[in-house]
Amino acid sequence: MPRLAYVNGRFIPHASAFVHIEDRGYQFADAVYEVVAVQDGAFVDLPGHLERLRYSLGELRIRPPLGLPALTLIMHDLVRRNRIRDGSLYLQITRGVAPRDFKFPTATKSAIVMTTRRRPTAPVRPPADGVAVVTVPELRWARRDIKSTSLLAQVLAKQQAAEAGAFEAWMVDPDGFVTEGASSNAWIVDRNGVLVTRQADRSILKGVTGNAIAGLAAGRGLEIERRKFSVAEALNAREAFLTSATTFCVPVTRIDLQPVGDGRPGPVATALGRHYLDYAGRQEPPFGWAP
Ligand SMILES: Cc1ncc(COP(=O)(O)O)c(C=O)c1O
Fold first, then answer.
1. CA dist 160 → 166, 168, 256 (Å)
2. N or C, where is the chain less crowded by C-beta within 10 Å?
3. Could you read off the pLDDT of 29-40 as tens digits, one per residue?
4. What tens digit of pLDDT does each residue of 136-167 get?
């Protein structure tokens, strides 16, 4: 059976799934998206992703093409049809197809596309010695709280990381503070053992995974501070790690070629990674789905 995509109401073989050349997502990045991990046949943190999707659409005044129950049903159906046990689902909603004009078109229906992927995208098992990140200047717009498909700055950042042999790029604002990773949230465990990550305002995307991990950490008595941290503080920290739906929780052991702590994955990040993996494996599978 060919891999299927969902495009505006139809399940279509992935290889022959296309959108219109005047789709506003294509021309203006006038679109939002979500990536949801699938673990043992069930979506991980689905309510958080749906809530953020609702928020992103609302902030851009894009009318949802479907109600949430129908959307969720189709997401489950695509995962089932593609027999994804462990992987991820990508969902994109654009303002729709209209003759090219910057302002919002009237009476245009929003457009929706969904695709799935098998592991290894989700979750990437952290390499035993952690991962390296490089720092890059923050080049993005001022509404990073919206999960928009306007990702050119992240494309450049990820390419720079790849060329440096690093796993991720950490973007740094003009004052020297880390905002987040190109596709993940950035964390440190500071000298006092406190978990630190930037406050979720408009300067970063509020990570669904990071939020769940913060909950797991708090439940284990760890202190969490939502504040800015500099690259220098990260290098001087006990540990660093990153979180996202596709990587879960990954220890960061090098920043710009310099070791973090003793240069090895720290106990807090390692334990949180294990806890999250366990939590991800305990999510409700979709109705009728036997992995
Ligand atoms: C810029 C950015 N920050 C943070 C994240 C992590 O968010 P989540 O944990 O919801 O995947 C992502 C995920 O793609 C991202 O693109």
1. 8, 9, 12
2. N
3. 999 999 999 999
4. 999 999 999 999 999 999 999 999 999 999 99
Q: What residues are labeled active site? A: 147
Pairing relationship of beta strands 185-189 and 178-181 according to DSSP bridges: unpaired
Residues 243, 184 contacting (CB under 8 angstroms): yes
CB contact burial 90-129 (16+ within 10 A = b; e otherwise):
bbbbbbbbbeeeeeebeeeebbbbbbbbebebbbeebeee
Q: What ligand 1 atom has the least distance to the C-alpha of 48? A: 10
Tell me, using a 6 A CB cutoff, whether residue 53 lines ligand 1: no
179 within ligand 1 shell (Cβ under 6 A): no
CA dist 99 to 20, 21, 79, 106, Å? 11, 10, 33, 11
User: Ligand 1 centre and the CA of 291: distance in Å?
Assistant: 27
Q: Is the CB of 243 under 6 A from ligand 1?
A: yes
CB atoms within 10 A of CB 220: 11
Cα separation of 207 and 201, whole Å? 11
Query: Does ligand 1 lie within 6 Å of residue 88's CB atom?
Result: no
Give, using CA atoms, the residue closest to atom 15 of ligand 1: 183
